[in-house]
Design goal:
Helices cover about 50% and strands about 5% of the residues. By secondary structure, the protein is mainly α. It has a 3-stranded antiparallel beta sheet with strand order 1-2-3. The longest helix is centred in the middle third of the chain and has 20 residues. It is globular, with a radius of gyration of 23 Å.
């Protein structure tokens, strides 16, 4: 009889597919999730199908350049703080992508960046021309209501070779250079587009020198460039060096770095300390390490503090100031460039914001059980339907829409009790896109490194 056929060897078992990583849902990951929702609430223009903040609809479709972000509780599109927001938020994604990935927020984060960079690219209407503002402050601020219902005139302000704005153009170049690093792997053609515009805008900034708020006087009322443009020329050069590895940009940044003084803040206006921290990380040179160490030590250990440990830098957006410094100094500590370890003081700022304070009050809307109910913010103060006007503004009722993820201004002095949850108090309780940027980057750092 025929011999029994050898049994077929059992096929090797298919390796089990790697389980999808569980999303980190710790406190800092939740903060990232919420913060990204706030940016969706600030979107201007035609909203995408996957918009998650449903009480917002299309608005300002007739703007000369649609899209971008509304600045704050109002509806002006101020280009300078919008660009600074994207560079600060972009820094977090460039260096701590892992934080966004672990929180399962990388796709939402990229959308947050791209909503602004698409607008910047469209606003770059010629090699030496850039739309720096849409909407006029006083006209806009005379209106309280929904952006969807706005019918006021929204003038357009631009910088040109004749009316230059080196700070605005170089900051936008920095934002686009950071974006090119963020999109390099997932969307290389878009990354290349960002980089092309970044280089052109930087050339414009460098070649035609001038302070943008002199060329756009309306911006000077709200976002005057107090520190001048050397800090942005240096900052833009550092980011372009990171994106291109072209030594020309590094040399430029190093030359300019000696003229930036010793600022005690890192803000939409002044990037000098950010320049020193990044140059220290890039070059390893002691001169920059010393400057970075001096900045972090001075601000985090020698500035006044509230009873619960918030570093008080200035009354406008005190929490934003503390968060920006916290992020830059956590980065500096992580890169080994600080002689003094101030990482505990830096992290303390973020924990304070998230309710680690004696009132157990979170300054990030929607986080925890107690948070601001009446932010100074037009669209979220309006009911879904019906009238919304100055009577709404003056009402003592909580905002009907919860503006999830918005970071409010915070205490207006080095006293925890100087914070007021009132729609009428735009020092303590306004929200702006730039308030969230460094905070969100710090949260990404804390998720990535835990």
């Amino acid at each position: 009889p025929e011999p029994e056929p050898e049994p077929e060897p059992e096929p090797e078992p298919e390796p089990e597919p790697e389980p999808e990583p569980e999303c980190d849902n710790g406190k800092y990951a939740k903060a990232i999730h919420l913060s990204l929702l706030f940016y969706e609430a600030q979107r201007s223009g035609k909203l995408p199908a996957n918009q998650r903040v449903k009480w917002r609809k299309d608005s300002a479709l007739d703007d000369e350049i649609p899209g971008g972000y509304y600045d704050a509780g109002d509806y002006v599109k101020f280009g300078f703080p919008m660009a600074a927001t994207i560079t600060m938020a972009g820094w977090g994604g460039v260096d701590y992508k892992k934080g966004f990935v672990k929180a399962c927020e990388w796709e939402n984060y990229k959308s947050m960046i791209k909503w602004a960079t698409d607008y910047f690219i469209a606003a770059h209407t010629g090699p030496n021309e850039f739309v720096g503002q849409i909407g006029k402050g006083d006209i806009d601020h005379a209106y309280w209501g929904r952006p969807e219902d706005m019918r006021m005139h929204r003038p357009v302000y631009r910088i040109t070779a004749q009316r230059p704005g080196s700070d605005l153009a170089a900051e936008t170049a920095a934002a686009l250079a950071a974006a090119s690093l963020i999109f390099k792997k997932d969307n290389p053609s878009y990354a290349a587009k960002c980089l092309k515009h970044a280089k052109e805008l930087y050339n414009f900034a460098d070649k035609y020198r001038g302070v943008y708020s002199n060329s756009i006087p309306d911006a000077a009322i709200y976002y005057k460039s107090w520190s001048g443009y050397n800090d942005e020329l240096a900052w833009g050069a550092v980011w372009l060096y990171r994106a291109t590895q072209n030594k020309m940009y590094l040399n430029k940044a190093e030359q300019l770095s000696n003229s930036l003084g010793s600022p005690e803040e890192l803000s939409w206006d002044n990037k000098g300390s950010g320049v020193q921290v990044l140059l220290a990380a890039i070059t390893g040179k002691q001169v920059y390490k010393n400057r970075a160490n001096q900045f972090c030590t001075r601000v985090l250990t020698q500035k006044p503090k509230t009873q619960d440990g918030l570093v008080f830098i200035q009354q406008w957006g005190s929490l934003r100031h503390a968060s920006n410094v916290a992020f830059a100094c956590l980065f500096a500590h992580d890169k080994g460039i600080l002689a003094n370890d101030v990482s505990a003081q830096a992290k303390r700022q973020i924990d304070y914001i998230l309710g680690d304070n004696s009132k157990r009050f979170s300054f990030l809307i929607g986080y925890g059980n107690k948070y601001p109910l009446k932010p100074h913010h037009g669209s979220s103060s309006c009911p879904l339907k019906g009238t919304c006007d100055w009577n709404t503004y003056n009402s003592q009722a909580p905002n009907p829409q919860i503006l999830k993820g918005a970071l409010v201004g915070g205490p207006k002095s080095a006293d925890d009790n100087s914070y007021v949850d009132s729609r009428q108090d735009y020092v303590t309780n306004e929200v702006t896109t730039d308030y969230n940027a460094g905070f969100q980057s710090a949260a990404a750092f804390l998720v990535a490194t835990q």
